[in-house]
Amino acid sequence: MRVSQIYAPTLREIPAEAEIASHQLLMKSGMIRKVAGGIYTYLPLGWRTMKKIMAIIREEMDAIDGQEIAMPAVQPAELWLESGRWRVYGAEMWRVKDRHDRDFCLAPTHEEVVTFHIRNDVRSYRSLPLRPYQIQNKYRDERRPRFGLMRSREFLMKDMYSFDVDEAGLDISYKLAYDAYSNIFRRCGLNFRPVEADSGAIGGSGSHEFMALADCGESQILYCSGCDFAATDEFASIKPVGTGTGEELREVETVYTPDCKTMEEVSAFLNVPINRTVKSMVYKADDEIVLVLIRGDRQINEVKLANLLDVVELGFAEEDEVRKVGLEPGYCGPVGTKGVRIIADEEIPLMINHECGQGQKDHHLLNVNYGRDYTADIVADIKLVEAGDACPCCGAPLLTARGIEVGQVFKLHTKYSSAMGARYVDANGEEHDMVMGCYGIGVGRTMSAVIEQNHDDKGIIWPMSVAPYQVLVVPVNDKDAELCAMAEDLYQELKRRRVEVLIDDRAERPGVKFNDADLWGIPLRVIFGKKCRETGKAELKFRADGRVEEVEVSQLADVIEANIRRMLDELK
Ligand code: ATP
Ligand code: MG
């Protein structure tokens, strides 16, 4: 392709809304353009990289007997009512009506449709396992679309589903998908880590997220300094820790605490360590107001709490909602509280002689004890695990890192097959629910993650495997016919050899050409400069480390091919 003709409109200025490097560089290099919030067009360079990532994904899915299909993006509500998710998906689901006023949605995912097909078409254990997959647009009306392709509202996802006869079969499918995902992300040049994860709205239990490590990542990972443990902060749990252990239970004492708003202020005023205080928080869980108790220095994990209560909408109750149930905002406590359910973190019963709100403005209680002074309706793990907490496997302190969730694998077990009647007949003629798994990769998010990990202040540094083009040929002076002819010869020769090559044939200054070259991030650049005519050598420049090799013009095509092969092999 000739740069003079390519549709890759570079920008001088970074669009103001682009906060992170990948979003900025995708826009600046002319790889994508925004159509509406969270909705993008891929321009030729961006789409070439997307296609390369998809080719890698297809190879690895086909290698584990994945079978590519293509399901519709428009899905009837009936299927979602069968699975029970028409309600659960909430506002994120893009709902549409047809001209007859019938409900449909734009696919946020495809468990329902794929289960519908398999239950209609597959009856015998002999046909299993099956692993259909597709790469297709998904629609999610995200609360906060941002970061370009990282969190968009229409995005390409590879989704695979596995159907097995039993749990042992699911274990095999899951392991195959897990290993295939590791291959995919390695081949894309990502520094990633699989971590234990919550299974969210998809349901089921047993899940890993594949995290590309990056400071801009929206996910927090906890990993162990001493062993292999790694999990998302939504999912991680630790052994509950008690406080005041061994102390005798003392008499409850009411204390006056003027102007103490935060847990830190209460703790300092009363001279009680903050880990011996209890925070009482009022949540609205769908339509129910609940009182939630957690140790003063800890945070609530709202994902765990929403899962526990099986609700879609969860957030702090408004002050008037708190008053309506007879509680005093800011001074709630569990002792004597009636009419609302109390949910306590599992550490609360282990806190001897703790402090908590008294129920009236400016008052707190000391020496309160679970069991003696109050109880909760539910005691469960609802806390956020943080850096420094003890690893649940080995006890060493946990560390944190930020990650971009590029893929996730789930064991669904029989959640969808039993709800939707996907059953098979075994060798003895008995019927069973199929055992399912599902496996997703965000293609655009993967491209963004690759850029996050591979760029500098000048532009993108594509790994060879996913670069839109492998080589960029740059004749420095477009007025120099002899140089241009040499560059053109190389361009033609590389094309003959099926190398993916660009030639910058524009009548532009060298500075402009070099800036664009750095921005586009093509891994190999061949520069035909003034010297070339005297020495018979051209410069081969590596985008990744800036290294330059002088290569005989007659050798160039061979040397380039060898380097491409080597760079691809390094990612295998
Ligand atoms: P998140 O927690 O980031 O919202 P998710 O867990 O809901 O993602 P999944 O349902 O597991 O996402 O989807 C599979 C993959 O699709 C994700 O791992 C991610 O790579 C990609 N993905 C999900 N939501 C988006 C989005 N809004 N924009 C781009 N890619 C997305
Ligand atoms: Mg996910």
Give the SSE map.
Layout: H1 21-28, E1 32-36, E2 39-42, H2 44-63, E3 67-68, E4 74-76, H3 77-83, H4 85-88, E5 94-97, E6 103-106, H5 111-121, E7 132-139, E8 154-164, H6 167-187, E9 192-196, E10 207-213, E11 219-224, E12 230-232, E13 253-256, H7 263-270, E14 278-285, E15 288-295, H8 302-309, E16 314-316, H9 319-324, E17 341-345, E18 354-357, E19 363-368, E20 378-380, E21 398-413, H10 415-420, E22 423-425, E23 431-433, E24 435-442, H11 443-453, E25 455-456, E26 459-460, E27 471-475, H12 481-496, E28 501-503, H13 510-520, E29 524-528, H14 531-535, E30 537-542, E31 548-552, H15 556-570
Parallel strand pairs: 3-7, 15-17, 17-20, 27-28, 27-29
Antiparallel strand pairs: 1-2, 4-6, 5-6, 7-8, 8-24, 9-10, 10-21, 11-12, 11-21, 13-19, 14-15, 14-16, 18-19, 21-24, 22-23, 25-26, 29-30, 30-31
Helix pairs in contact: 1-11, 2-6, 2-11
The structure holds adenosine-5'-triphosphate and magnesium ion (MG).
Feature tags:
572 residues; BirA Bifunctional Protein, domain 2; Rossmann fold; 3 domains; nine-stranded mixed sheet; 15 helices; globular; binds adenosine-5'-triphosphate; binds magnesium ion
Tell me what the structure shows:
The chain is α+β, with helices and mostly antiparallel strands and 572 residues long. The chain folds into three domains: 3-72 and 120-236 and 399-452, Bira Bifunctional Protein, Domain 2 (BirA Bifunctional Protein, domain 2), CATH 3.30.930.10; 253-380, YbaK protein; 469-569, 3-Layer(aba) Sandwich (Rossmann fold). The chain is built from 15 helices and 31 strands. Strands 3, 7, 8, 9, 10, 11, 12, 21 and 24 form a nine-stranded mixed beta sheet that branches. A hairpin with a 5-residue loop joins β5 and β6. α1 packs across α11, α2 (44-63) runs antiparallel to α6 and α2 (44-63) packs across α11. The longest helix has 21 residues, at 167-187. The two termini are 27 Å apart. The model has no long low-confidence stretch (mean pLDDT 95). The chain binds adenosine-5'-triphosphate and magnesium ion. Adenosine-5'-triphosphate (ATP) binds at residues 109, 140, 142, 151-152, 155, 157, 200, 202, 405-408, 440-442, 444-445.
